[in-house]
Amino acid sequence: MKLLKVSIIAGVILGFGSTILAEDATKMMNPQFGTKEDIAFAKDMWQKLSKKGFLGVHNHLYIGGPPHGKVREVVEGVIDNNLVILKTNYGGKNISIEKVKKNPNKYLKAITVMVKRKGYDPEDKDWFWIKYAPNGKIVENKKGIKLAGKVAKGMPIGCIACHKSASGDDFVFSHNKVVNASVTWIGNKNLKDKFATLMK
Question: Is 107 helix (H, G, I), strand (E, B) or coil?
Answer without folding.
Answer: helix
